[in-house]
Target: SAM-dependent methyltransferase
Amino acid sequence: MLIITIKQGKEKSLLGQSWIYASAIEKVEGKPQEKMKPGSTAIVQSSSKQFIARAAYNSKSQIRARIWSFKEDEPVDHALIKRRVKAAIEKKLSAIKKAGENQLLTLIKGEDEGLPGLVVQLFGGVQGYLICEFNAGGVDAWKVAIVQSLMASTGCANVYERCDDLMRKGEGLPLIDGALAGEEPPDEVMLTDNGVRYALDLKTGHKSKFR
Model:
């Protein structure tokens, strides 16, 4: 595991924040291969070696680390990922159950759910498609656990990874998309939003008003 030491005097600026920039970091210790791997788990400590947080480190991103937890006794593991995905979905269960076949719901919005860089939408209810964007090294490294937890929590069998080229390039992540489970979504679906119908490409997110 990596150890990130924060510059003296910069510790207070991290309180309540989800991101750590390079300017706040004194040094990063650990194996070279771990330093180069986007999303490697790191302990963040003060200049006096006091625990601050656990984070996902990415040397290739302007945001050098994204906080997973400020709790010293909360390890970053499959159980944490499962808890956070499940908690996020539970907040939306009522909406998921009521979702129509042409409705798009946002289920997870990154830091709001303690899953920095993850965006998840559901189209067409549980019989439809989960559309995921892994826009940071940390959630990309835990992709398998996230997908498994999403499927278990929602009951949806179709999961598709959408690629935000700009975000993933900025994180040093490969530009990939495709089905992660089940079937790929169709090239175009009809979306109803506030009574207005749109043509939506689930694979890219492009939406155009239906005429």
User: Anything to note?
Assistant: Residues 78-91 form the longest helix (14 residues).
